[in-house]
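G., before I forget:
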Amino acid sequence: MDLRTAVQLGVIGLTFFMLINASALLVLAERKIMGFMQQRFGPYLVGPHGLLQPLADILKLLMKEELRPKGADKWLFTLAPILSVTAAFAAFSTVPWGAETTLFGLLDQPVKLGAADVNVGVLVVFAITSMGVYGIVLAGWSSNSKYSLFGGLRASAQMISYELSYATALAAVILLAGSMSLREVVDAQAGSWLGVLPRWYVFLQPVGFIIYMIAGVAETNRAPFDFPEAEQELVAGYNTEYSSVRFALFPQAEYINMATMSAVATDLYLGGWHGPFLPPAYGWIWFLAKVGFILFAYIWVRWTVPRYRYDQLMTFGWKWLFPASVLNLLVTAALVLYFNA
Amino acid sequence: MPETLLFYVLAGVAIAASVLVIGQRNPMYSVMLLIASFGALAGLYIQLDAPFVAVAQIIIYAGAIMVLFLFVVMLLNAPQEDAAAWDRAHPLRQPGVLTFGTLLAALLIVELVWALGRTLGLAAPVAGRVGPATVSSVRELGRVLFTDHMFAFEATSVLILVAMVGAVVLARREEDR
Amino acid sequence: MIPLNHYLIVSAILFTIGSAGVFLRRNLITILLSVEIMLNAVNLSFVAFGRAAGDVNGQIITFFVITVAAAEAAVGLALVIALFRHKESLNPDAFTSLRW
């Protein structure tokens, strides 16, 4: 195995490692930010300023008793969280997180920073995200409990409804960039206008960006769209009957989905790893900063805005967001045709 | 060599999953196994230099149509004991008939495999004659779709609209008058 | 390099399995699933032939087959729901009221 293959495998491993750490850090970040917004410190005791709290959380979950209700379907009950978390991790596979690097000159040919680069990368992310619906649906059904079933059905209906607006917003960006490979979409946003304004697509597609963020929040069952989850506080949710490791996989899948949505939003709208003052090989620092900002916005919205009721949520998705998304696509297509003709 | 191995693995998964789909008593398991079969077929499409069809298969077939099947299976929740009693009494489910049908299917498979394996004109390697660039470009696909097949494209959109309206009307509850 | 007839053999086997499912199973949903298996087998044939001939039309036809399959699945399942509401059974032999 030559050095280049080894470095490529190392990049894939590093991506996976980053994602796992991201889910742990998000657990802590959520509770700390929530605490500060509510004028209190978050977790404070475990480690300096509560920094080791995720470790304590994970250890606690791992040592709980593994329960399975008697009437629950044996195979599907275990398959559901596995599906959820596998889809969450696999969706990040075609997302690039940095420019090419030669590893300080050790390699002859630079290695691209990202797990894989296929020419239909945007669609691969979308396809695997839509497989994540199965985790929730199966969790709801296989728990053999009425409330789990309804929670799971509602969550999956919400997810597949907002996938439409998500895809149409994506299509508008693909029109602008002329390619479906995420790396090429990012590279089309290099440079700046008049040396001042970066060529990010958020300035060309403000409506599209807002639609994408709303659809992304609804896709991950978070923030104002988490009625199927919040039923846990009221009645029950799709992960009521789960405990210990199987339970831990569900919030982990949710946080990784959040990270993937933020990373794809950064690549599509915020210029990925392009930014001033840093050489391209260190662009991943800008990438992390932008993704961090979007994740902060996710958590911020969650603890600020009240939740939508379920029928309000579905009405919004079908009657307002989807027509706005289609209109955005039509206007983008017309303008692309006009300015390129 | 790894290419051939990958082909056999994917084809094996697709065929095994399909056989299990028609053999399961629980329709929930059938749906999940069919999703596995679709995933294997998507892998085969990628091997055939058709990445867009592969991704479209996952998005539409495995990600939307199968979710629809899953919803219907969960909502209907047909009691399974009744089905078993009915099956046992039914003339078509007697063991003799079932084995006869399975035997016929196996015979058909053997005959088709023999016939297709002997056809000399089809024995050339798939990727031999033309390079992948002409076939796998999404740009080319879009261009041909929107110029040569424009009418079929528009007709398909009308078809989808009709299917949507039809599904809503057919599954509506009878209003009590 | 995989010969074309390998792909066609896989497609033929899948098609036979699908048609065996349609004939032998007595559950409406499994019958619809078997129809989907048959449509997928045909898709594989199309893409394989298209690749062998260097023609992009193989993939285009696959598009249309997938779309038509989606429409057919939606309407078929709506029919299944309507039938189930009527008779509380998913067995196709339960719906015999139009027989002489």
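DSSP finds eight helices and no strands in chain B. The CA atoms of residues 3 and 47 of chain B lie 8 Å apart.

More on Monday.
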